[in-house]
Each structure stands twice: as structure tokens, then as C-alpha cells.
Design a protein that fits this description.
single chain, alpha/beta, Rossmann fold, seven-stranded mixed sheet, two-stranded antiparallel ribbon, 10 helices, 11 strands
Length: 276
């Protein structure tokens, strides 16, 4: 696989970043107004996350840093890493405006061990919609293991690969597998001038190259990298309207669920593993 995907996807995220920072979907104003505000993604998993105070953490594929800042507010000493310089401009601006000391590093994930200290982190965190941008989940898991101290923890919440494999523009209520569930050599190619949060911006860098990774592939990659799985929980909601027109916003206004028989669909999952 060539590195074309990096340039293509970087261009897309560079355009999305300022629009996302200005969108109510990311709630930047809430972070500025309330020094205790946390992102909805972090709040969703607070009971599973536990006490992170004093931990040295790195957030891979941190985008504009709302989850990174949230972990900082919980007491972790955070570093954020992302391939998009425009995303890091917004992340640094948010951290500075909130008086948060967070280091942000520009790099694609597979080079993380070249730009961050190996074996130095107590926590590697990855949030929603990150793994689909990577062609190999095994390489990702090797990077995670390389960053963690012995006893250090991986924490990831992600969209479920069944969700990613669905045809999302059907007019009926059927759930149809239209895309690969497992990892393929060639990426799925998309052209889309919209994004997943409200914005009036029309994007011109619309092409993206993405991969799905099956649950078995993800768990096997984590185990093969020398991590012990401590928890794996599947959820019946996601923090965005993943299937437009067919989902309902749940109480609290942050998670979406399939409106018709949501038990049919694993929407997302939370995975925790420890380096042994």
C-alpha cells in the first residue's frame, strides 16, 4: 500500500478542522465557558476509564483535541498526536485558551515511535472514528504497545465494524451489509462534501481512503502485540447520526441509536488492554 492515503486524508482533515472547531457539534464554547466541561465521548466512558490523575497519556489521532483536553482535565498529563497540521492549530488554540499544558505533535500514527518516547506512557487513548483511516490494525497495535510502559493501558472507543459495513442511504428499514467487514488491502474510496457535525462549510477536498477492521482482527492485533485484553464492551449507541434519517437522539442529546429495533446493530465498542 502506497502512502497516497496519507496525503489524500490529510487534505480532507485539514479542511474539516476549522469547520469542526466552529461547529456546535464539538462544543468548543462549552470548554471555554466551563473549566470542568468534558467531551461527551469521554463522559460516556467515565466509569470504565477510572482514575487517570497523574498518568502520562497520549491521544493518537487527536484531531482538534476536545477529548485530549478532557483527559487533561481529569488529571492526566497529555500529549496529542495527529497528521493534520490544521487540526493541531485548533487543538493548540483550544488548550491555550483553556490554560491547559498539552503537548501536540504532528505525525501519522505509524511514525509515532519516531517522534514520541517509546515505553513512556501509562495510557494510550484513541477515540471515535480513528481506526478506519489506517490500512493495518496490526501495525497500529504494535505502535500502541511500543508507546506503553509495562502495565500501561490502551483505552479505545470506536464505531463498530458492523456499523461501518452498512449501506447508510437506504430508504427502508433494512440493515444491509454493503461494504467490507474485515480489513482489505485496497481501501474504500469515498467522495463526500459533508461532515458528521453541523456546518455551513462546503468542502472541496472531498476524497477519502478508508479501511474497515473486523472485531476479530482488532482483538488479535492487540493480543499479538503483547497486550492483555481486560475489557471489551459493545454499545447500542454512537455519538453522531451514523445512519442519517434512521436514528434517534437519546436523552442527554449526545448519543444516537437506530430508531427501529436497535438491538439488531452493534453501534460501537469500548476496548481496554494492558501491556504485559
Amino acid at each position: 500500500m502506497s502512502d497516497e492515503y496519507l496525503a489524500v486524508n490529510k487534505a480532507n482533515w485539514d479542511q474539516r478542522a476549522p469547520a469542526h472547531a466552529a461547529s456546535p457539534g464539538y462544543g468548543v464554547d462549552h470548554f471555554l465557558a466551563d473549566p470542568e466541561h468534558l467531551s461527551g465521548v469521554i463522559r460516556f466512558d467515565l466509569s470504565r476509564l477510572g482514575d487517570v490523575a497523574g498518568l502520562r497519556g497520549v491521544h493518537l489521532q487527536c484531531h482538534i483535541g476536545t477529548d485530549t483536553l478532557s483527559l487533561h482535565r481529569l488529571g492526566a498529563r497529555m500529549t496529542g498526536l495527529d497528521l493534520s497540521p490544521a487540526s493541531l492549530v485548533e487543538a493548540r488554540r483550544l488548550a491555550a485558551s483553556c490554560g491547559a499544558e498539552i503537548e501536540y505533535v504532528e505525525s501519522e500514527v505509524y511514525r509515532a515511535l519516531d517522534v514520541l518516547e517509546p515505553g513512556a506512557f501509562d495510557l494510550v487513548y484513541t477515540g471515535m472514528g480513528a481506526l478506519c483511516w489506517l490500512p493495518s490494525v496490526a501495525r497500529w497495535a504494535e505502535v500502541v504497545a511500543g508507546l506503553l510502559k509495562p502495565g500501561g493501558r490502551l483505552f479505545i472507543r470506536e464505531g463498530h465494524p458492523v456499523l461501518w459495513s452498512l449501506e447508510d442511504d437506504r430508504a427502508d428499514d433494512e440493515l444491509v451489509i454493503a461494504h467490507s467487514y474485515g480489513e482489505m488491502i485496497e481501501p474504500l474510496e469515498w467522495n463526500d462534501d459533508s461532515t458528521y457535525v453541523p456546518t455551513d462549510v462546503t468542502f472541496t477536498a472531498t476524497r477519502t481512503l478508508e479501511w474497515n477492521h473486523g472485531i476479530g482482527e482488532i482483538l488479535t492485533a492487540v493480543l499479538d502485540a503483547g497486550l492483555a485484553v481486560r475489557s471489551f464492551v459493545e454499545h447500542d449507541s454512537v455519538p453522531w447520526e451514523a445512519i442519517p434519517g434512521r436514528m434517534e437522539l437519546l436523552e442527554g442529546g449526545e448519543e444516537w441509536r437506530l430508531a427501529d429495533r436497535p438491538e439488531r446493530l452493534p453501534h460501537s465498542y469500548t476496548l481496554q488492554a494492558v501491556k504485559i
